[in-house]
Design a protein that fits this description.
mainly alpha; 2 domains
Length: about 100
Amino acid sequence: MRNRDIKKSFYLNAKENQMLKQKCLQTGLSESNFFRMCILGEKIKERPDERFFDMLDNLRGIATNINQIAKSANSGYEINTSQLNSFETEVKNFISDLREKYL
């Protein structure tokens, strides 16, 4: 069963239509979702680029590594300092890339 059962139709001129298509492309939303968000007063943000999602995957990997190191340390295993230093460098590089891209 449909959650939304009222259909609306309206007209746009060529410029308005182009602007709508561009905004939907930038946000990654369909036209109907874009309109719904406007009506509800929700903040519409641009969809992040692919680099953002790559960085997010890297961050997940870093979090996994931190968790593994913490488990090893809490279990009484000796932590390899050279691996820890390379991991620290990886985290610093990630932070630097993040600042360069988004700050």
